[in-house]
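Hi team, as promised in this morning's meeting, here are the two structures we talked about. I've kept the exact order from the run log so nobody has to guess. The first one is mostly here for context; it's the second one we should focus on when we meet again. Sequence first, then the predicted structure tokens.
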Amino acid sequence: MDFLHWYIASLRSLVPGALRRPAGQDAAMTVTAAAGAPPEAAEITQEGRGGARALGRLGQMRRSAVIRPVVLRLRGAGALIRRVTLPAAARRDLAAALAFEIDRLTPFTADEVLVTHEILARDNAQGLLHVRLAVLPRAWIADLLAALDEAGLAAVRIEAASAEGEAVFALPGARRQSRVPPALALLAAGLAVLCLAIPPARQALALHRLDAARAALAPRLRLAEALRGRLAAEDRFRAALGAEAAREGDTLLMLSALTRALPDRSYLTDLSLRDRVATLDGESPNAAGLVARLAADPHFADPAFAAPVTRSLNGGGDVFSIRVRLRDDEAG
């Protein structure tokens, strides 16, 4: 319907002003309602170039083809007006702060009233904000708004005056609506459908072209992803080797140094390495001399027997278990 309103308004803008509206109908009408009076008794006036002109009572109005905007003036049934003081920080979300004040100061909730406010003063020294708050319960004007709708009128602004003062409430949801001929409505509907169909069709065509281009590039993309995965795996493997070498030391360097340190007729039956500490199990003609040789080697530090030395079964040598640490500057 928004498109229809825009389309009709565009057509009307092409009509000369003298033909667009009857004389005296170029300003919004005013509906004045008194407190306690029935809605049908509200007085309607038209502000024109020659001044205000009485149009009669609301109950006498016939509904027209065009919903006309009016200003609703309430006399004797004014808004509830309060002066509230808020922290200056409340200005960032003043609507929420005022909703809380409405719940606190009135028997209504924020959803049950029309609200308007005016910032009266800012006290920067004390960090306060002085606000004039006015609320108008929707229930007070529900029958009057329904009567306006029955007469083909829509309130765009409400002016409520009472002993506490006057407050003006805007009704942004009210707007002019038109009844259009069926042929024009059908034409506008067809244009609307066309306007709604073109963007999705263009988008679908663009998506089809994009899918075709993506399908053509799919083999290259898969090859690139496979290469990227292989390179990432190799990088992770090298990183793991580097981390393990940094933690345990260079195994090849340790084996080379042990080969040089072991004297003739000495051999190892077991070798383990954990956190740069090597445990050597084996047999040697002189186990004590082997500890001395390891202590003299620059690649090792703190050699010591991990278990008592025993003689081999054939009596040809010492069975030993030696624990030795790899030096940090030589490991890895």
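And here is the second protein, the one for discussion:
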Amino acid sequence: MRRLTSVLMIVTCLLAGVALAADELIPRPSRPARSYRIGVLEPNMAIPHFVAQAYGFVDEAEKLGARVILYDAGEHKNVAKQVSQMEDLIANKVDAICIVPGTTATAVAQIDEAIAKGVVVVNVNIMSDNPKAIGRIRSDDYELGRLQGEFIVKALKGQGNVVMIAGVSGNSAFIMRAKGFKEYVAKHPGIKVLSEQWTPNATDKGLKLMEDWSQAFPKIDAVYSGGDRLTIGAVQALLAQGKQPGDVIVTTVDYNDDTERLVREGWISAAMVQVPVTMGRWGIRVALLALEKKPIPPNLLTPTYVVTKENADQIDLTAVRQPKGWRPPM
């Protein structure tokens, strides 16, 4: 029998409906008297989340009279490439660097080098092991995982088998999401985690894992996913197996065009939505505040919320996606 997926939505950081008009923790500062050059390091712009984030960096910089020099490492684990890009920015004497490291250990030494040379370094989205980088702008990734656990437990009424597509190893965002999920479901003994696998955030990886698990386990009731590219692949596998929307509870993080379609069709039961455009905007604001010797607010956690097919029409996407047709200035 098709499992009903209509579960009361869980919303965090929203006070008025499902909208992104909440007061910002870090309002846009005044335009500085001089124009600054800010390097931005993204880990993998094949993923829509990071394209939207790049838009936030670039658009906010333009609004505040700054210029962005944008680099893409091409994959989370391209550590050597991202290190080389950071060294290039340091050599070019940019005023600030906003780094979204592919892993927590990426460019730790280069952050020290940049700071020693007077370059402001702002850490965004994926947390660095180097505590000297300022800002630490991110979603509450632990909460994103916990919310998935809460949704799945409620949808399964506390009984069922779950598989975990954890995401990229060595990456703070995926690590904390998985931790939040596991610690929540551990309180519900009727929920059994059959398998947890770490893998690059790519559609083909999610597809292959779901195919393998379907062979290994006769009954899978729910799928936890740390990122929506993986989820899309998992749904493709379920579709190929003749499943119907709602037969398996599927939850994920992020909300690109394909994810939205699958949410509306019922294949993805709930998406934990981040605001990558806001992350980019806040990164530029923190960089400029630091350069202008102005105070920076602590605890810069960006809003997150849950989208299901029941509330999908109520979502304001301006902080989630770049405008249609926008391309990164690479």
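Starting points for discussion:
DSSP finds nine helices and eleven strands in the chain.
Residues 1-23 have pLDDT under 50 and may be disordered.
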